[in-house]
Amino acid sequence: MMGMVKNSLLSTVEAWPYRLLSKGEKDQVSYEERACEGGRFAAVELVGKPFDEASKEGAVKLFKYVGGSNDKGVGMGMTAPVSITAFPAEDGSFQQKVKVSLRIPSQFQANPPCPTNESIKIEERQEMT
């Protein structure tokens, strides 16, 4: 396990490819609007856990996957940022479903290794702003 963590956290971090659409500042906070490239992502959904707990658990599973916990046993390196989506419950709370996603590094986009953890799914995502 330590090798997987080392491979995923200490290797080169690949930035999620994007185009800068605009940037500005509002209330002394700088921001950028980006068009983030689509592609293949490793994703895990967690249900019924508080947002913080679910997002941490999902990130750890994905770090293990890119660190070598896959059918090829290959450390792929990291991409950043990690995408976290909260799907609110009917009462508006963020405790119903959380999806944590990590863009698969460019060199593995065409043929990503299969995760050994069955809760991790490989999915195709479109460009997003």
The helix/strand class is: alpha+beta
Number of helices: 2
> Which spans have pLDDT < 50 for at least 5 consecutive residues?
1-9
Distance between the termini: 35 Å
> What are the secondary-structure elements, in order, as H or E?
HEEEEHEEEE
Give the CATH class of the domain at 39-125: Alpha Beta
Annotated CATH architecture of the domain at 39-125? Alpha-Beta Barrel
Number of DSSP E strands: 8
What can be said about the biggest beta sheet? 4 strands, antiparallel
Which percent range fits the helix content?
Answer: 10-25%
Rough outline:
globular
Strand residue percentage:
35-45%
- For this structure, what is the CATH homologous superfamily of the domain at 39-125? Regulatory factor, effector binding domain
Structure description:
The chain is of the alpha+beta class. It has a domain at 39-125: Multidrug-efflux Transporter 1 Regulator Bmrr, Chain A, CATH 3.20.80. The chain contains two helices and eight strands; from the N terminus they run αββββαββββ. A four-stranded antiparallel β-sheet has the order 6-7-4-8, covered by helices on one side. The chain has a two-stranded parallel sheet with strand order 1-5. Strand 2 and strand 3 (29-36) form a beta hairpin. It is globular and about 50 Å long.
Furnish the topology, listing elements before pairings.
Blueprint (H helix, E strand, L loop, with lengths): L1 H8 L3 E3 L2 E9 L2 E8 L2 E9 L3 H17 L10 E3 L2 E5 L9 E7 L16 E6 L4
Parallel strand pairs: 1-5
Antiparallel strand pairs: 2-3, 4-7, 4-8, 6-7
Short overview:
The protein is of the alpha+beta class. The chain has a domain at 39-125: Multidrug-efflux Transporter 1 Regulator Bmrr, Chain A, CATH 3.20.80. It contains 2 helices and 8 strands.
